[in-house]
Automatic annotation (TrEMBL), chains A, B:
<dbReference type="InterPro" id="IPR036388">
    <property type="entry name" value="WH-like_DNA-bd_sf"/>
</dbReference>
<keyword id="KW-0560">Oxidoreductase</keyword>
<dbReference type="Pfam" id="PF01613">
    <property type="entry name" value="Flavin_Reduct"/>
</dbReference>
<dbReference type="InterPro" id="IPR012349">
    <property type="entry name" value="Split_barrel_FMN-bd"/>
</dbReference>
<dbReference type="InterPro" id="IPR050268">
    <property type="entry name" value="NADH-dep_flavin_reductase"/>
</dbReference>
<comment type="similarity">
    <text>Belongs to the non-flavoprotein flavin reductase family.</text>
</comment>
<dbReference type="InterPro" id="IPR036390">
    <property type="entry name" value="WH_DNA-bd_sf"/>
</dbReference>
<feature type="domain" description="Flavin reductase like">
    <location>
        <begin position="16"/>
        <end position="159"/>
    </location>
</feature>
<dbReference type="InterPro" id="IPR002563">
    <property type="entry name" value="Flavin_Rdtase-like_dom"/>
</dbReference>
<protein>
    <submittedName>
        <fullName>Flavin reductase</fullName>
    </submittedName>
</protein>
Length: 325, 325
């Protein structure tokens, strides 16, 4: 427990930062008409009747005078895609509004778009808050979109992974002596992967293809004209390997053609092969849309983010499939 | 855009709720010594010097008098495991503190444990906030743990999936005509699954086992004495199926024994089979600990939560492996 005298500003800030927040940009217009905006996560709702919200501004902020004199200001709850905008409005000195289209609001305060929610306010009170001023505003108008909101926690942007009201359980609680539970990450990743693969497998069976052929076609659809060794460099992480037999099978299905020059053999997709691969990708995208509809856009973004972080942290050194040659 | 006169309280609340927050429990002690506590997400930091925080309390709250008269109150930033505690302190009439161990604080205000951060405060100001009172407190002492915080967004609890400062990219940006990108959920799930499987595959090869055998042993380690058909009911989602040849191979490796009665053939794990399975589970747990160390505890919890939601939403109707018989 750190008591008052021993407060280290950085450590105290870190402790406060564990309280998760959204991210807002708050805008107003200076007396001379200049648009003013800053990023703030000190926003919160206060009252429903009358509808009041609050946020606080450092007394030494360059925008202090503008906000102190302004009658109106707008709070923009930023969406997950507005991380760069958050950064722009958090820095000083830039022409923050450059290139931004503004919507028409009920006051002259700039109204940004692409946000999760917007609250157009009139200052109701301003209160002393130590080195900050607390602005309490009456909400005169508001709107919101379905865009997932941007989150901030411990100095990092984040996305929310929402918990349903009922606990998500896949099976019964295992007896205590069972060392294998549904909570094992490896089990969850495997089961999620195989369940997502279910529809693709059905398509592959109508295409008379196995999973290995699917991976080979996928790689060739991104980078054509590869040698067997290069193909395997991209698919070996699956535990499957292509060999001349598997390539011949794809050739006899007229999905792949062989290009032989003096030095080596390269494989290219035929028009049929590209068509087959496109159908697989279209199906994968349809399955993903179905998942996104069930989980929600923000949660699906969060899942992808976490999977990418997991992959990056356990990457055995796979070659970059998309790098230009 | 909804303007003032048209405010529907429920819709306005929903718009405010898109601003993500942490969850706190704020405690004090009434004049008669009764412990008081409420769940609040209206907390925020205000000032570093002096160290001030704020939160707001409904004017019609039962605890209003206690907080208005108290000099001291404590803010507890709840951890991800404290969802039930949040619910308990959000409801009225319960003996909220029943069974809770309290820590010794600098005032008589109850100090809960198991939190992400705690701020022990003395009321500095209290301000009018419409139907709420805004309490601004000077932080006299604080502490924090490494426990991941609980998040609240749009009326649901959540976990944060943090974004690193640098964008997570697995490969180069694909050319615009490429329809196959690293952003495809199916690709990410497959690659994450196969990368997590990498260490297990190495173990399996020292055990002279293939993946199908791994799934068979795993199922038998949870539910012993299954018929071939029952085993396949549990592993068919992987696309792999057990047959008598695969079971005979496991029997000749002395990992599985065959129990024949009049009606049918059942398979049971031998002591060696159980030992082999335990080594696989131990490895899977070690791989998971490694991931959790890299991603962080909270992000790993978020990943598991999202995978469970994905699995539950795309479950083709798998039998419950852990259900009691």
């Amino acid at each position: 427990m750190t008591t008052h005298k021993g407060f280290d500003p950085q450590d105290f800030r870190a402790a406060l930062g564990t309280f998760t927040t959204g991210v807002t940009i708050i805008t107003t217009r200076a007396a001379d008409g200049e648009p003013i905006g800053i990023t703030a996560n000190s926003f919160n709702s206060v009252s429903l009747n009358p509808p009041l919200v609050l946020w606080s501004l450092a007394k030494n902020a360059r925008s202090r005078e503008a906000f102190a004199n302004a009658k109106h200001w707008n709070v923009h709850v930023l969406s997950a895609a507005q991380e760069a905008l958050s950064g722009r409005f958090a820095r000083q000195g830039e022409d923050k509004f450059s290139g931004l289209e503004l919507d028409e609001g009920i006051s002259k305060a700039p109204l940004l778009n692409g946000c999760t929610a917007r609250f157009q306010c009139r200052t109701a009170f301003s209160y002393d808050g130590g080195d900050h001023i607390i602005f309490v505003g009456e909400v005169l108008a508001y709107d919101r979109s379905e865009l997932p909101p941007l989150v901030f926690q411990s100095g990092q942007y984040a996305l929310a992974a929402r918990k349903p009201r009922e606990e998500v359980r896949l099976g019964s609680t295992p007896p205590p002596e069972c060392s294998y539970t549904e909570d094992l990450l490896g089990y969850l990743l495997g089961r999620a992967h195989y369940q997502m693969l279910h529809a693709l497998r059905q398509l592959l069976s109508t295409q008379a293809l196995d999973e290995r052929s699917f991976f080979i076609l996928s790689v060739l659809s991104i980078r054509d004209g590869l040698s067997l060794q290069e193909i395997n460099g991209f698919i070996s992480y699956t535990g499957m390997l292509a060999d001349e037999t598997s390539m011949s099978a794809l050739e006899s299905q007229r999905l792949v053609a062989i290009e032989q020059d003096e030095e080596r053999t390269r494989y290219v997709l035929t028009a049929d092969g590209r068509e087959a691969s496109l159908r697989q990708i279209a199906l994968a995208k349809a399955v993903e849309e179905d998942v996104a509809a069930k989980l929600g856009t923000g949660d699906t973004m969060a899942l992808k983010l976490l999977l990418k972080r997991l992959i990056a942290s356990s990457d055995p050194g796979m070659p970059d499939l998309w790098s230009p040659r």
